[in-house]
């Protein structure tokens, strides 16, 4: 099903939940609404579900405006963070509830519930009480209940937040696979950018009720249009530096008291357009410790002191201070960096981002 | 100069020594037993008095002053029609209250907890304020209302002055603020998600209330039912004020009539009637106690 949101807004008295959200979701696509808590992503989802009434704008399913259509007539299935299972019913009772409300025949209900339960791997738990299930099993029941009515649109409201890390990883893959197999258009609300990056075809980044960006994951990562998107997408987060862009012998340089780096011609030119002060962003993986693989380079190398070392297993996340300016860098385990060490860093400025400090818009992509 | 002292090895942490554990438990039980003795003695007297002609302390006394004189004559009232009529009236009032308060509180509490409508806050404050007015203050006003209701054709005879229905109606009204607030509290604790899920699954708002929400507040309904049943069963002031004669008297009014007669009071008879009045309450409690205990054991389990 094709979903279009056109200037969709929701406000309560003077609190704005969602402010003129406009986006379209093509048939079979999985779109993630990503943002910190309170950014309006769940509000928007509940409007799509029909639980909240929009105070402005329209929601269209396949070209038909559904603003006034009741939730039960929208052909949607929804999975909640709290699972929202009915504790006084068995697993069968929960999954069959939507079908019983449709007054389907007993035989058909049984057949469809069994089929969905088997697909979710809970086919042998149908007689259990909800309280007897583990968190992961409850989540599968919730998913089964959403799928059993064969919805045209699936809505997920942070469905994995209550699961432990390992189970989250498994369920993430399963939901993605299921969604692709069934080809159901889906909206997936999450505050976890890894979840959004790995699962979504496109991501809508939201902040304070406003849609910040709507694009494929790679584009959000490589070409962030706003400072917020750059800061929110990516883990560990991007490093930001206040710098001046100066022209020196035909080279563009990013300069501050601590930093002096040569910029590539194309990016430097765009960054210089703001004349003067800009915010430069460099991702942790684009700062490398000088070694055999990355020899020092003229104008791209700076020396800093390691102040924090956080082992992540495969590599270390090292907090480095260059003349009082802090940044985080991913360092290979074999470098054996210790707190207090002085290290030379090579900056990959060809991937650096530049933002206007006033508008917080990208100078490269906006 | 500082010396480094080595602390003596501490005993391994673990359960208290057996002896101390036992003394502690004896102390706790001793205290509990001591504190319930007066209550138990009171009930014991009640039971003994009902089968005695006279009592001294807990001992039944016969005409000569010696121990003995057990009799069942105090229970003769059981064969009298008046007690059964009073019991039926009490039961009618109590059951009408449980049903009336139950329906109004579960639906009203849900609406106040979950729906947005003008005057919602005002209504909540008003009910709370009005609850502060004791029934005694309203007796005369209610009398006029009941007189008015009694004049309504056909149904007037069932809900007017000097009718069991009228008494039940007044009792329900007086109990509603508590009931509505109690149920609102229970509904407030339920997650919105469950309700939203049911709406998306295809349920109407009424069905959500009936099939999804009500089962979650069963402990609350049980508690409210028990409280209202007790209030209705023991109701005295309202039935006493708004009924005349024994035909519409309930148990407490009947009991009062035994005492206020001009003849010397037979306390053993009063005790027997009192014990008789408690029996339905005990039965009702036995049926609801498991649900009631649920409230304290986590209430909404599994959410």
Secondary structure elements and pairings:
The complex is a heterodimer of chains A (366) and B (303).
Chain A: E1 3-12, E2 15-25, E3 30-34, H1 41-49, E4 56-61, E5 64-65, E6 76-79, H2 91-101, H3 106-119, H4 135-147, E7 153-157, H5 165-182, E8 185-190, H6 193-199, E9 202-207, E10 210-215, H7 217-222, H8 227-232, E11 239-248, E12 251-255, E13 260-263, H9 265-272, E14 277-282, E15 287-289, E16 301-311, E17 315-322, E18 325-332, E19 342-347, E20 353-355
Chain B: H1 18-50, E1 54-56, E2 59-61, H2 81-114, H3 120-131, H4 135-150, H5 156-159, H6 164-188, H7 192-201, H8 205-216, H9 218-233, H10 237-242, H11 251-260, H12 267-296
Antiparallel strand pairs in B: 1-2
Helix pairs in contact in B: 1-12, 2-6, 2-9, 2-11, 3-6, 6-9, 7-8, 9-12, 11-12
How would you describe the overall organization of this protein?
The complex is a heterodimer of chains A (366) and B (303). With 366 residues, chain A is α+β, with helices and mostly antiparallel strands. Chain A folds into two domains: 3-232, P-loop containing nucleotide triphosphate hydrolases (Rossmann fold, 3-Layer(aba) Sandwich), CATH 3.40.50.300; 239-355, OB fold (Dihydrolipoamide Acetyltransferase, E2P). Chain A has helices at residues 41-49, 91-101, 106-119, 135-147, 165-182, 193-199, 217-222, 227-232, 265-272; strands spanning 3-12, 15-25, 30-34, 56-61, 64-65, 76-79, 153-157, 185-190, 202-207, 210-215, 239-248, 251-255, 260-263, 277-282, 287-289, 301-311, 315-322, 325-332, 342-347, 353-355. A six-stranded mixed sheet of chain A has the order 6-7-8-3-9-10, sandwiched between helices. A five-stranded antiparallel sheet of chain A has the order 13-12-11-14-20. A five-stranded antiparallel sheet of chain A has the order 15-19-16-17-18, with no helix packed on it. In chain A, a hairpin with a 2-residue loop joins strand 11 and strand 12. The longest helix of chain A is centred in the middle third of the chain and has 18 residues, at 165-182. The radius of gyration of chain A is 25 Å and the shape is elongated. Chain A starts with a strand and ends in an 11-residue tail after the last strand. Chain B is an all-alpha fold and 303 residues long. Chain B has two domains: 22-71, no CATH class; 81-296, MetI-like fold, CATH 1.10.3720. In chain B, helix 2 packs antiparallel against helix 9 (218-233) and helix 9 packs antiparallel against helix 12. The longest helix of chain B has 34 residues, at 81-114. The N and C termini of chain B lie far apart (63 Å). Classes of the chains: A alpha+beta (366), B mainly alpha (303). The A-B interface holds A 46, 49-51, 70-72, 74, 76-78, 80-88, 97-98, 101-102, 129-131, 145, 149, 157 and B 191, 193-194, 196-204, 207, 212, 215-216, 300-303.
């Amino acid at each position: 099903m094709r979903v279009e949101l056109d200037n969709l807004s929701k406000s309560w008295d003077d609190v704005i939940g969602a402010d003129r959200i406009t986006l379209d979701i093509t048939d079979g696509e999985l779109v993630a609404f990503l943002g910190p808590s309170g950014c309006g992503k769940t509000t928007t989802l509940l409007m799509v579900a029909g639980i909240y009434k929009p105070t402005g704008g329209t929601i269209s399913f396949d070209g038909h405006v559904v603003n006034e259509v009741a939730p039960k007539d929208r052909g949607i299935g929804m999975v909640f963070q709290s699972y929202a299972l009915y504790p006084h019913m068995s697993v069968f009772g929960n999954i069959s509830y939507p079908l019983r409300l449709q007054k389907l025949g007993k035989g058909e209900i049984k057949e469809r519930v069994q089929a969905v339960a088997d697909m979710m791997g809970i086919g042998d738990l149908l007689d259990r009480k909800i309280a007897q299930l583990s968190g992961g099993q409850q989540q599968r029941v919730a998913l089964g209940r959403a799928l059993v009515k064969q919805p045209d649109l699936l809505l997920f409201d942070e469905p994995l937040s209550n699961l432990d890390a390992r189970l989250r990883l498994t369920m993430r893959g399963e939901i993605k696979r299921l969604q692709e197999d069934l080809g159901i258009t889906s909206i997936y609300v999450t505050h976890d950018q890894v979840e959004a990056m790995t699962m979504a075809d496109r991501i809508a980044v939201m902040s304070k009720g406003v849609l910040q960006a709507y694009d494929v994951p790679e584009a959000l990562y490589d070409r962030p249009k706003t400072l917020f998107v750059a800061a929110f997408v990516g883990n560990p987060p991007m490093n930001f530096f206040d710098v001046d862009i100066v022209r020196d012998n035909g080279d563009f340089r990013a300069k501050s008291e601590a930093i002096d780096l040569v910029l590539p011609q194309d990016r430097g030119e765009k960054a210089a357009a703001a004349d003067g002060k800009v915010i430069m962003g460099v991702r942790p993986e684009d700062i490398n410790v000088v070694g055999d693989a990355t020899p020092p380079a003229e104008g791209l190398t700076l020396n800093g002191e390691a102040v924090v070392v956080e082992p992540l297993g495969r590599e270390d996340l090292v907090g480095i201070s260059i003349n009082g300016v802090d940044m985080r860098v991913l360092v290979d385990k074999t470098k054996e960096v210790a707190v207090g060490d002085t290290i030379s860093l090579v900056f990959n400025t060809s991937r650096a981002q530049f933002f206007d400090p006033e508008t917080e818009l990208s100078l490269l992509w906006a | 100069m500082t010396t480094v002292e080595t602390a003596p090895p501490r005993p391994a942490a673990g359960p208290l020594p057996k002896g101390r554990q036992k003394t502690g438990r004896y102390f706790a039980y001793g205290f509990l037993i001591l504190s319930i003795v007066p209550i138990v003695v009171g009930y014991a007297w009640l039971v003994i008095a009902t089968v005695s002609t006279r009592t001294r302390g807990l001992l039944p006394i016969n005409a000569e002053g010696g121990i003995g004189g057990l009799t069942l004559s105090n229970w003769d009232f059981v064969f009298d029609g008046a007690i059964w009529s009073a019991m039926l009236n009490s039961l009618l009032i109590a059951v009408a209250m449980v049903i009336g308060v139950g329906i109004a509180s579960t639906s009203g509490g849900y609406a106040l907890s979950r729906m947005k409508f003008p005057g919602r806050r005002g209504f909540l404050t008003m009910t709370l304020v009005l609850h502060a007015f004791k029934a005694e203050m309203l007796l005369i006003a209610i009398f006029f209302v009941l007189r008015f209701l009694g004049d309504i054709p056909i149904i007037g005879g069932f809900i007017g002055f000097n009718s069991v229905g009228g008494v039940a109606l007044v009792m329900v009204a007086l109990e509603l603020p508590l009931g509505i607030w109690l149920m609102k509290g229970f509904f407030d604790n339920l997650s919105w998600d469950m309700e939203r899920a049911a709406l998306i699954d295809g349920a109407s708002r009424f069905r959500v209330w009936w099939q999804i929400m009500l089962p979650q507040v069963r402990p609350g309904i049980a508690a409210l039912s028990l409280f209202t049943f007790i209030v209705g069963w023991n109701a005295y002031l309202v039935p006493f004020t708004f009924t005349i004669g024994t035909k519409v008297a309930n148990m407490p009014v009947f009991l009062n009539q035994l005492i206020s007669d001009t003849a010397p009071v037979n306390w053993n008879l009063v005790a027997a009637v009192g014990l008789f009045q408690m029996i339905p309450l005990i039965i009702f409690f036995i049926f609801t106690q498991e649900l009631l205990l649920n409230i304290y054991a986590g209430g909404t389990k599994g959410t």
